[in-house]
Amino acid sequence: MKNIKRISTYLFLTCAAIISIFPFFWMIISATNKSVDVSKGRLLPGSHLIENFKSLIETVDIVTALTNSAIISVTTTVLSLIIASLAGYGFEIYRSKAKDIVFNILLISMMIPFAALMVPLYRMFGSLSQIAPFIGMDTFAAVMLPTLTTAFLIFFFRQNTKMFSRELIEAGRIDGLSEIGIFIRIYMPTMKTAYAAAAIITFMNSWNNYLWPLVVLQSPEKQTIPLLISNLGSGYAPDFGVIMLTIVIATLPTALIFFLMQKHFVAGMMGSVK
Amino acid sequence: MNGRTKTKLTGWTFVGISTFMISIFYFYPMIQAFILSLQSGAGTNLSFVGFDNYKRALTDPTFIAAFKNTFIFLIIQVPIMILLGLFLSVLLNDSMLKFRSFFRIAIFLPCVTSLVAYSVIFKDLFAVDGIINKLLLQLSIVTEGINWLTDPFWAKVAIIIAITWRWTGYNMIFYLSGLQNIDHSIYEAAKMDGASSFQQFFKITIPMLKPIILFTSITSTIGTLQIFDEVMNITKGGPGNATTSISQYIYNISFKYTPDFGYAATVSYFVVVIIVLLAALQFKLAGDKK
């Protein structure tokens, strides 16, 4: 009886692991095969990887898309972390009744679905195009601005600030540091792990963001990786080998972050639920 | 300026940018969306029509279809995923288990893919002559390939399978960390009293994890109600409107058909109301049993 239970546990977990890994396996195998073989469901590695790579470089502007995605994701991550950690720190350290009310109101924004914001934001950036074209439609600024500040990240930093020692702040004040000086010189270095976790989740979200860039970006030379993949996938004569190679390349950055920083990655995903 | 006012002001400068940004990019658009929802017309030619858009939505077959589809995804997918995640986390929490971290990493791995990327992969896996049908045929589970993407029923199933693949591991990680906080002696005591694993699961694990289950069911509900990337890239909402989601319908009204921003805003307000109601309901359900 005990043995049956053990065996079925392993069997079940092995099945779950195979199902989880199979699409990755398939996408990597397919990147080395001809389009015809991919649609035939060939499960063995082929010799077409170099050809796929060549036609990827020739037919798809993947370098531009990668550069665009990198610029947007890195900028978003840096700015988001600064803005949210300032607020998380402020709400916790300079706590007051009024600020708690503001904090709770900000939390409500987590319930607002993006689909509800999409149309008004589109119109907002549409009218901005006339007075300030550099942050209007079809600019990276328009892609980034609405995603820079999330209540989730503020909440995350506030929760983490609860574990930050007040004595360090007092020590900083005695040493004559300004309030912002304390934040930059003492708080930021001590909260490295929180920043790492927050950076990973923000980068992932930005790198993978699809709907808003789809709405706001129009020129092909500005498209990001998810837009590129989506276009390739819905093309009329899709080259499956090339598509899979593109997806492999697009998934590499996030997969690398996961394998190199597993702990922070999971902490970031789980946010402040402790 | 005295010291206290100064500290107060410093505090507000810290939280100021965030408060400003969220007001501009969340709350202001919500007000705009409400005003828009009372207007109708094509593109920028809008005129006030009162609550006509809301009435129109209630009799709009596409809206009703999108609403139904989204709810089918929600009602079927979220419970399956949560139960599966719980079950996996219980199996993986056994410290005697070999290859534990391998299983954990493998099952979590789908989370590193972007929604668009995995959708495109699944679209190919689900093709009529795709690998899933090949496998089913080979194992003699079916006698002819399933029309995953062109049959209204199977297209929904395909979407549900895809979302479950992507998010089960994510939820499992939450449960695993919750399980680590449960005192092992509770299980020992239950075993002494002769409780089966089944009873332990329902009488100890689930009640102890209730706050986390609540949290994951709220986030999954909000996520599924907004589903867009998957339907857009796996089925394009088809066949017909068999898999069109509410978010996708809003997108279509605004950017695919002749834009009717007023009506799009109306449809989006339905989503807002549903999310608020469901979140309140889930809180109440969880609270009542306490």
Structural class of chain A: mainly alpha
**Largest contact between chains:** A-B, 83 and 88 residues
Radius of gyration of chain A: 23 Å
Mean of residue pLDDT values of chain A? 89
Detail the poorly predicted runs of chain B.
none
Structure description:
The complex is a heterodimer of chains A (274) and B (290). The two termini of chain A are 37 Å apart. The radius of gyration of chain A is 23 Å and the shape is globular. Helix content of chain A is 76%, strand content 0%. The longest helix of chain A is centred in the N-terminal third of the chain and has 32 residues. With 274 residues, chain A is mainly alpha-helical. Chain B is mainly alpha-helical and 290 residues long. Chain B is 74% helix and 1% strand. Chain B is built from 13 helices and 2 strands; from the N terminus they run αββαααααααααααα. Chain B has a two-stranded antiparallel ribbon with strand order 1-2. In chain B, a hairpin with a 6-residue loop joins β1 and β2. In chain B, α1 packs across α13 and α12 packs antiparallel against α13. The longest helix of chain B is centred in the N-terminal third of the chain and has 35 residues. Chains A and B meet through α1, α2, α4, α5 and α6 of A and α1, α3, α4, α5 and α7 of B.
Task: Name the descriptors.
heterodimer, A: 274 residues, mainly alpha, B: 290 residues, two-stranded antiparallel ribbon, 13 helices, 74% helix, globular
